[in-house]
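Forum: Protein Structure Q&A
Topic: Joint prediction for protein chains with partners

I've read a bunch of threads here and the consensus seems to be that you should model interacting components together rather than docking separate models afterwards. I'd like to see that in practice. Below is the full input, 1152 residues plus whatever partners are listed. Could one of the regulars post the assembled result?
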Amino acid sequence: MRVPLSWLHEYLDFDLSTAELVDLFSLRSQEIDGVYHLGVTDGEVVVGEILEFGPHPNADRLHVAKVDLGGREVQIVAGAPNPYPGARVPVVLPGSVMSDGTKLRKAKLRGLESYGMMMSERELGISADHGGILLLDGSHAVGRPVAEYFPVGETILDIDVTPNRPDLWGMIGVARELAAILRVDYRIPEPSLQKGGKPTADFGLRVEAGELCPRYDLRRVSDLEPGRVAPLWMRRRIYAAGMRPINAVVDATNYVMLETGQPIHAFDAGSVRGGIVVRRAWPGERITLLDGSTRHLDEDMLVIADEERGLVIAGVMGAEDAEVGEETTDALIEAANFDGRNILQTSQKLGLRTDASGRFERGLDPNMVGHAMDRVTTLLAQSAGGRVAGDTLSHYPEPVETWRVPLRLDRAELVLGMPVRTDEAADRLQALGCEVEAEDRRLSAVVPTFRLDLRREADLIEEVGRLIGLDRVPETLPAVPQPGGLTEQQHTTRLLRRLLADVGLSEAITYPFGPERWTLDLGLEDETVGLQNPLSTEGSELRTSILPGLLDAAARNKAFGARGVGLFELGKAFFADPPPEALEDAARRFRMTGEFGEQDADRLMGVREENRVGVVLAGTVEPAGWNFPGFRAGFYEAKGIVERLVPGARFSPAKRPYLHPGRSAVVSVGAREAGWVGELHPEVVERFDLTGWPVAALELDPALCQPDPELRFDPFVNVPAAARDLAVVVEERLPVGEMLRSIHGLSSSTLTEARVFDVYVGNPVPQGQKSIAFGFTFQGESTLTDEEVDAEVGRIVARVEDEFGARVRS
Amino acid sequence: MTVSERIEQLKSEALSAVASGDSTAALEDVRVRYLGRSAELTEIKKSIGTLAPEERKEVGRSSNLASREIEAALDSRTGEVAAREREDRLREEAVDITLPGVPFRKGHLHPSWRIIDEVVDFFVGLGYRVAEGPEVETDYYNFTALGIPPGHPARTMQDTFFVDDGLVLRTQTSPMQIRTMLAQEPPVFVVCPGRTYRRDSDPTHTPMFHQVEGLAVDRGLTLAHLKGTLAAMARHVFGESVGIRLRPSYFQFTEPSVEMDVSCFVCGGTDPHCKVCKGAGWLEMLGAGMVDPGVLEEVGYDPEEYTGYAFGMGPDRMAMVKYDVPDLRLFFEGDLRFLRQF
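Posted by a regular:
Agreed with the consensus. Here's the joint model:
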């Protein structure tokens, strides 16, 4: 809601700087989105009379005027050609500051002195009209400040009205609110009707869809003077409030909407056939609106029609037919109340939001209709020469009455955490328009119907609290009667993130929705969950793996010149898990009402979410240094991360379409599959624009990761350990892991560590074979003799010779 | 030449060899030559037994004396030379200390989660537990149970991603309030961090963002407790010097509803050109309020017996403010040029 401060000053007196007003209003009521300025913010504008007006001698498009500023004659160069000798014009004097911050100076334009500037409506902040100099009528005395007639500058507060306060969508509501904050009185313009126009009853009114239209009032204003322009004060206020002045009739309706918050519509009575019908749209009904668009309506939409055709989408926008125009002399004025939710639905379905629909959708007070009708018809009589009908057609079968809400002061103190005096609470509620009775720390408030949001004690407590001031609420800490903490899984997740960062990876957070190709390009067969209204097809499906988002991120880095990436992400994967047909109704009920009866609520969700931790290594993750070999993406690099996260993990060949068939593994812990690790299939690398980079990745269930395995002390003896190396030659295809497992299977009482420190293929190892170098550490209860150690190594040799046909290299 | 004279001769030869020895190796040669197993002086000592008894004493004494003198000279000289040699060696071993060291890779935690961890740690320290919930949420938990039934205008304030009949991507972490309260009896003190989704995309809005929701329900909880808790949290995240203020606001599931501003942690409101607060002195930080009695009733708590407060903050926005990041979209692109700064 844009609030011109000069307008607000008409309704109440206050002496606050703009900054103070903004602070006060935001701390007591609503947030202020912005402060704008129009016209002349500082300086002087006076009424001048043109003495001479002619072409500029040195410029085709300029004119020169001699202007009388009241006993003082000045020369002004102008661009606009419309002034003439005898015309009165606003002249802004040098030294004045305009709303855009420019300071006006005495200037020479093409060789001629120009003292100040004659102003257009736009320059004065009256309208967007910049077509010529504003011409003032003879009531404006030459030499007088223009500000004596109307403000030459305007400051506008843009209030961000919360949805519970439709009463603040009108200037009167804002004035009432500010008056309540400042504890001062406010005054509003009262209508003064002189009737005598043609009767409204020449037309009919029939409300067919009463459920969508609690109130509909119609009054005729006849004998309008065609082509009238609204008075300047009205136009400038409409413009300052953010709307466009149009003609005297439309401007009056918009002005009263801005003043009261009640949208008003005017029909050209001459075009209305028979009368006004308030009905639902017919199936297939179309309507061509003022903005030229043709809209297809449905039966859930309310239409204001005559006996033959739809004239307005109720509360949203009027049609070309029966719209008031320059030629209108006879108008039917509508002030009505519509069901807010229905207006909201209609406006959403049509993608059409207007000043009117924005007000209706929040729910307006039907009792506001009468005042607004009186006010708009008064203005039409005053500014458009109309004569107001003596009769009003009205549909208002169930008038809304005020209601009573109790307030216990003890409860208010409990909720607000500060003392609240009975008289102060009563005073504050009265300022908001309530009638309050007080008895023994209890109030009973009769709430005015324009405060539809005040229904319960809690609502009144909020009003009292904010008007007393939230700054008066003290800061205290509650006593929390429980120890805080993370669950084991939360702790693990946090350690996982730290650990992955500690091994040098960067934590990414990517969108969990992507294009269909995510699953297609990975060859995944998971049932995906789609979005019904994605921002684009690039984000239409929820991921079933962390992988594609991280691959896209890797490709982005590659495109920007990175040599490689090491990224990880913790997040959810989503799988479609539709409930069986028999439970579809139960599922719908659960989702809409929370009721699940005997059913398992998870089963009714229809989507299964799984936690995942994903890592992508791609390219040269860390480039080589002069003293450091570098770190490139590869199977063993990724596997090393898995081994760090999942102690005791087992690796078995993986057959996944997106993985390199010979360089990938399924990771298991006990009998459970924890995830996978491997280099990506070259086709996938290509599809994700990573061609040329080695790419390895892993994805695990964080619940099966053990970044910090359970700790238990294992006693050791203080005697030296013995180390022995052993190199053997075996068939090249033999998995070394099996040899290691077999060696551990010897159950040696002294072998404490077996390490592979070299794998070698090539001369002098015969073709088809490889050399494996092991390093063993032996530790006994007492210092081991060479013979004892040799005996253990001998057992190992015998085992690998026997089981794997290994030959010891000498 | 008598034996004794020979000893004197050997001694002076040895001492001059020691004096001119200029390396530990040369001095070791001197030691072997004059004091070694087959050195002449050693031979003389071995032969003492064969001498005439009157000679034995004198030769024994002077040979021992000579040995000790040579020994002492050798030790002292060796010490000097060794020290010099070590200095020389250390000088030769000098490296280019300006070359970079072996790189120990540094990883990076996401800025949003850095803030979330800080916030969560703060509340855990106060005695809160941490709850997490589904990101695909039912219409009921995300809206209706929070006082936003179908058709309610507040629904249009949150551009929602729809998944299926009655299923949405959660637009807020607030449904965790309902899930938590349905699962337990008061007292409740819980924070719920997580991803949330709205159909929106510009420099300050991304279709996914994070929230941290907080909920406390117990006997006697007041707006003052909420204010004190939030003030302490703000100081924890932004520094001891910051203050807070509450402004009235509107959320469907709290009454009264407030928004919290934090005083600018950079300029404290003193700099009209401050880059962080743009001269306002205050930074909008979060929404909060006292739990609406209707919400308590919805989950079967007695609103006459229990009161509570709830708050929801945007850790991404807090990270933007704290680390001076101008564009929220950077957070979710996985761009290392961004991630490596945290």
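Chain B touches chain A through 93 residues (CB under 8 Å).
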